[in-house]
């Protein structure tokens, strides 16, 4: 049993010459090439992306907003160059495209000519998203493109918040303008409500007036109908009067003509009577002649068609009769002289146009003509008055009907005005309430709210176990890889199973332990050296340093036992190929770099059955923190792997105590 723990002979082989001793030291430090060097190289690559040359092009022409020129592209370009997140270089578009094509730049970012217009478009009539042109070239570096895409996503988020804050600030500024407009509109609404109230009262008065007007129009219509009847009767009376007056005017004309003729006869009579009187005075004695003459004159007077002349003729006859009875005497002469004077007066009145009778008769005749014209005008006026009264009656009837319609319309207007007044009051109230609901901010408050609204989401991230950087995150994978390769290198230099132990006929377990313990010392040294370098030189700060060191030792010993079992079972030549194949499988199935679910389905199925999955899981919890049951599962699996590998190797070693030609001369040597 003591021989099983005696490993001096195996190590003694490496102490005889300098080169083997150097080889032994190299075996101890060789895992650092995979562990420490990889971690050093990839410790925090994202902190160095500012050294990646990236072209930035500002082709933006700017935009005119409210009379002010806005150049968002220039502002963003200056901000990105100032921040220095990437190795920005301001170049022309042609230089940027050429640089991306020939590899001088990893990618190029261009703000197009309409960038400012698109950014400010939400406040206009044609809102659209602003576009940033990004050109990559995977031929330069596919990983560089991935880093660039990640960086652009972060930059885009920052720019979206900044630009969104500016756009929202414009909206809020417009909202403040709207608030001012609403306040003014509310004042106007209150004035409108006051006006509609007055209008409502006025319409009520108008309704009263319309009813009064309709009543009066109906009364006027009735009066106009009565007036039309009266004017009709007046027109009929005037027509009758006209029919009576027209003959009167004609009679006056005929009377004037007869008076003129009587005047001529009266003149002749007067002349005859005068002559007769003169003759009687001269010939008083000549009675017979006188009576004869009187009779002759009487006969002449009877020829005149006028009653007064006939009376004169009869007087002459009476005179003749008297002369005949009494003879011509003084009384007769006195009567003749009176007759002469009366005839002269009659001749003057009837014959002289300037006599009162003839003048009055002329005036009567003229008045009759004027009366005729006036009566005709009166008749025409009465007829027109009657026609106008009829039209007035018809018009007033229409007005009365319209008055009734006006009453109905004013009633509807009153109802509509009441609704308008209620609506105006509701509008004024709503505008006032709306204006009060829109807060009033100063410029600083508006800018603060625009920043919040423009980027309304903010992650409150909580990480139960946070990796300090990229290297810390991938350290479990590289360390596991280094320890597995370290165990593999040990068995490439040292003998997985000692022939001396096999030849001595020791049991399988003792034979395996005789080779395992010397190698275990080197494996422990590998773990300690790796821990010291990673911890103190590279700067990895594990959550549990002692636990990490112990887990490194356990992982190294487990991987060492596992690879020893493969070597013992398959033989050195075949085992080397098998171990490399197992290494490749574990690299893609352990989930050290990417989540297992993101790999192929085959690797996801294999993941729980490979040792490196548990070494990666345990180291993550010891380095990053947040240790839970998975750590103890990993410890249990690795310890089980250690024991199981030694047992499998012991069984295989026991079978190898029999030497065959195939073992002495294997078909494959590597």
TrEMBL record:
<keyword id="KW-0472">Membrane</keyword>
<feature type="transmembrane region" description="Helical">
    <location>
        <begin position="515"/>
        <end position="538"/>
    </location>
</feature>
<feature type="transmembrane region" description="Helical">
    <location>
        <begin position="631"/>
        <end position="653"/>
    </location>
</feature>
<dbReference type="InterPro" id="IPR013525">
    <property type="entry name" value="ABC2_TM"/>
</dbReference>
<dbReference type="Pfam" id="PF12698">
    <property type="entry name" value="ABC2_membrane_3"/>
</dbReference>
<protein>
    <submittedName>
        <fullName>Putative membrane protein</fullName>
    </submittedName>
</protein>
<feature type="transmembrane region" description="Helical">
    <location>
        <begin position="22"/>
        <end position="43"/>
    </location>
</feature>
<keyword id="KW-1133">Transmembrane helix</keyword>
<keyword id="KW-0812">Transmembrane</keyword>
<feature type="transmembrane region" description="Helical">
    <location>
        <begin position="474"/>
        <end position="494"/>
    </location>
</feature>
<dbReference type="InterPro" id="IPR051328">
    <property type="entry name" value="T7SS_ABC-Transporter"/>
</dbReference>
<feature type="transmembrane region" description="Helical">
    <location>
        <begin position="550"/>
        <end position="570"/>
    </location>
</feature>
<dbReference type="InterPro" id="IPR023908">
    <property type="entry name" value="xxxLxxG_rpt"/>
</dbReference>
<dbReference type="InterPro" id="IPR017501">
    <property type="entry name" value="Phage_infect_YhgE_C"/>
</dbReference>
<feature type="domain" description="ABC-2 type transporter transmembrane">
    <location>
        <begin position="24"/>
        <end position="162"/>
    </location>
</feature>
<feature type="transmembrane region" description="Helical">
    <location>
        <begin position="577"/>
        <end position="594"/>
    </location>
</feature>
<dbReference type="InterPro" id="IPR017500">
    <property type="entry name" value="Phage_infect_YhgE_N"/>
</dbReference>
<dbReference type="GO" id="GO:0140359">
    <property type="term" value="F:ABC-type transporter activity"/>
</dbReference>
<dbReference type="GO" id="GO:0016020">
    <property type="term" value="C:membrane"/>
</dbReference>
<feature type="domain" description="ABC-2 type transporter transmembrane">
    <location>
        <begin position="466"/>
        <end position="650"/>
    </location>
</feature>
């Amino acid at each position: 049993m003591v021989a099983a723990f005696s490993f001096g002979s195996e190590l003694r082989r490496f102490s005889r010459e300098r080169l083997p001793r150097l080889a032994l030291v190299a075996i101890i430090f060789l895992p650092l090439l995979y562990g420490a060097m990889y971690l050093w190289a990839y410790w925090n690559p994202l902190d160095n992306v500012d050294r990646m040359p990236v072209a930035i092009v500002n082709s933006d022409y700017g935009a005119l907003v409210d009379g002010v020129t806005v150049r968002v592209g220039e502002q963003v370009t200056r901000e990105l160059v100032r921040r220095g997140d990437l190795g920005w270089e301001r170049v022309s578009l042609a230089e940027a495209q050429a640089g991306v094509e020939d590899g001088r730049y990893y990618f190029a970012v261009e703000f197009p000519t309409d960038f400012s217009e698109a950014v400010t478009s939400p406040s206009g009539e044609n809102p659209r998203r602003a576009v940033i042109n990004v050109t990559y070239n995977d031929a330069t570096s596919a990983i560089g493109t991935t880093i660039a895409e990640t960086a652009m996503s972060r930059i885009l988020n920052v720019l979206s918040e900044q630009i969104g804050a500016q756009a929202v600030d414009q909206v809020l500024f417009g909202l403040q303008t709207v608030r001012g407009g609403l306040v003014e509109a509310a004042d106007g609404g209150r004035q409108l409500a006051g006006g509609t109230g007055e209008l409502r009262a006025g319409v009520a008065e108008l309704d009263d007036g319309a009813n009064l007007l309709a009543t009066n129009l109906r009364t006027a219509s009735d009066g106009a109908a009565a007036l039309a009847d009266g004017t009709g009767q007046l027109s009929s009376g005037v027509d009758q009067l006209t029919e009576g007056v027209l003959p009167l005017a004609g009679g006056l004309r005929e009377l004037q003509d007869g008076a003129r003729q009587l005047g001529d006869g009266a003149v002749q009579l007067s002349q005859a009577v005068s002559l007769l009187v003169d003759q009687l005075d001269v010939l008083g004695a000549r009675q017979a002649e006188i009576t004869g003459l009187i009779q002759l004159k009487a006969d002449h007077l009877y020829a005149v068609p006028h009653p007064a002349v006939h009376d004169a003729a009869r007087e002459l006859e009476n005179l003749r009769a008297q002369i005949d009875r009494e003879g011509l005497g003084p009384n007769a002469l006195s009567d003749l002289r009176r007759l002469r004077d009366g005839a002269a007066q009659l001749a003057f009145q009837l014959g002289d146009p300037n006599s009162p009778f003839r003048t009055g008769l002329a005036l009567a005749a003229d008045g009759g003509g004027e009366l005729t014209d006036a009566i005709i005008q009166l008749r025409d006026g009465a007829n027109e008055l009657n026609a106008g009264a009829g039209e007035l009656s018809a018009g007033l009837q229409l007005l009365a009907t319209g008055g009734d319609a006006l009453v109905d319309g004013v009633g509807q207007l009153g109802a509509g005005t009441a609704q308008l007044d209620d609506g105006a009051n509701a509008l004024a109230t709503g505008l006032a309430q709306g204006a009060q609901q829109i807060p009033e901010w100063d410029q600083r408050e508006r800018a603060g709210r625009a920043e919040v609204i423009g980027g309304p989401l903010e992650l409150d991230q909580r990480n139960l176990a946070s990796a300090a950087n990229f290297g810390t995150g991938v350290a479990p994978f590289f360390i596991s890889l280094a320890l597995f390769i370290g165990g593999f290198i040990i068995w490439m230099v040292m003998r997985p199973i000692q022939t001396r132990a096999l030849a001595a006929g020791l049991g399988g377990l003792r034979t395996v332990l005789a080779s395992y313990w010397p190698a275990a010392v080197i494996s422990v040294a590998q773990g300690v050296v790796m821990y010291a370098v990673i911890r103190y030189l590279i700067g990895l700060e594990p959550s549990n340093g002692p636990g990490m060191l112990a887990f490194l030792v356990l992982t190294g010993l487990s991987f060492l036992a596992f690879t020893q079992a493969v070597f013992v079972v398959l033989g050195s030549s075949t085992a080397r190929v098998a171990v490399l194949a197992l290494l490749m499988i574990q690299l893609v199935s352990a989930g050290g770099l990417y989540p297992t679910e993101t790999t192929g389905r085959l690797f996801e199925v294999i993941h729980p059955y490979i040792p490196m999955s548990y070494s990666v899981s345990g180291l993550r919890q010891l380095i990053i923190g947040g240790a839970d049951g998975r750590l103890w599962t990993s410890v249990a699996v690795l310890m089980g792997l250690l024991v199981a590998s030694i047992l499998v190797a012991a069984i295989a070693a026991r079978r190898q105590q029999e030497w065959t030609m195939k073992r002495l001369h294997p078909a494959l040597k590597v």
